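Sample A.
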Amino acid sequence: MHILSLAAVVTGGLWGGRTERFGAAMLLLFRIAFANPRVMWVIGDVYIDSIIEDTLTALILGRLAFRSDRWWPFAATTAQALTVLVHVFSIVTDISWDAALSARVGLGLLLYASLLAGVAERWLAGETAVSDTVEWRRRRRAP
């Protein structure tokens, strides 16, 4: 999953459109922000920081899904909503930690695969990436 997440973030950032770039940047930002192992909030078998990360990701992807004209944010939002549901089930029911982790890994793979598929669909449709249309030059200082 880590290799696929890295590939999806890099591919979305380099060859994606504005929607893919925003999704890749958001996923990378949350991955970095919540990756600190010294700040783990644990209640029983439940990692509260992981619930917060997944809930924020689902909310932002849901907003992106309804604001953009792309299909992949709907798939990514669905994967994240189901991941939050796995967290809820691990709190409410007696689901094993291994089963919850397996479900979260599978849904994470679906999240990053949908971002990659969105970039691939943009490329197959012949749409140019944002990085190809931006003119990179230095700004002049104001006099």
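Sample B.
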Amino acid sequence: MTKHLVRFQSAMNSRLRGDAGQGALEYIGILIIIGIVVAAVLVVFGEQQGNINTAITTAISDFLNT
């Protein structure tokens, strides 16, 4: 191999070693974002539970009475 190719492979190997764990960090970040979104949706539904129940009950009774 030429000296240039050896240097290129060495640079690529050190670069790849520097990126080790990057995929895991991205995966954890995505899971954290999904968790925050799910928690926000649960909080909103929890706060609006009375309104949702009333709306569903009204819709069912309107449908059955027609």
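B remarks: The mean pLDDT is 82. The helical segments are 3-18, 22-47, 49-65.
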